[in-house]
Amino acid sequence: MAIVSSAAFPFPPFVPSLALPPKTLILTTRRSLISWATALVFSSSSSSLLPSSAASSPLPPPAAGFFEIPASGGVKALDLRVGGGATPVEGDQVAIHYYGRLAAKQGWRFDSTYDHKDEMGDPVPFLFVVGSGKVISGIQAAVKSMKVGGIRRAVIPPSQGYQNTSQEPVPPNFFDRQRLFTTIFNPTRLANGEGSTLGTLIFDIELVSVRHP
């Protein structure tokens, strides 16, 4: 099997906590929630998001603004860094690092592969096979048009996010997992017609490697 890997990435794509919206702001529609999330994550330049330790190797400015990925069901993406390696196809195993945040909780970070460490203390990337159907559709749509070494921010609407609690990636921490799914699948709020807003996700994704079968 051939493996195509990105160069060592000395720091994760740091994302600060999103500011709370004003109390007078009521997000009642899917469009308003996605627009708020998109505007907020795009409002700061990429260089201002970096920890001080990365000052010597800053990310370049985004290549362009947010765009909707074709045939993705409404996933919007912003390329923070365009990779120079291979692009995955159906059947490839990919390794990614990610930060996952929930827009309905003001950008609460529910999971990060940089917190998943091996016995040596190194972060462990998340692996999946493109086209396997095991991961949420929005992540697969975002990754399929990336190149190894690239970093992309994806705003994923509920229809392309978690449809059940078995879809990956699943936060390993029980309390984070419980908070995530009780928010997305809250029966009272779903009954009130809020299903189109509860599950909007924001993922920062780095495509680390592609393994061809």
UniProtKB/TrEMBL annotation:
InterPro entries named among the record's database cross-references: FKBP17-1-like (IPR044197), PPIase_dom_sf (IPR046357), PPIase_FKBP_dom (IPR001179)
Catalytic activity: [protein]-peptidylproline (omega=180) = [protein]-peptidylproline (omega=0)
Keyword terms, alphabetized: Isomerase, Rotamase
EC code: 5.2.1.8
Record PROSITE patterns: FKBP_PPIASE
Keyword Oxidoreductase tagged: no
Top-level taxon of the source organism: Eukaryota
Keyword check for Membrane: no
PPIase FKBP-type domain: residues covered: 91-211
Gene Ontology molecular function, alphabetical: peptidyl-prolyl cis-trans isomerase activity
Xref: PANTHER family: PEPTIDYL-PROLYL CIS-TRANS ISOMERASE FKBP17-1, CHLOROPLASTIC
Protein name (database record): peptidylprolyl isomerase
Organism, as annotated: Cocos nucifera (Coconut palm)
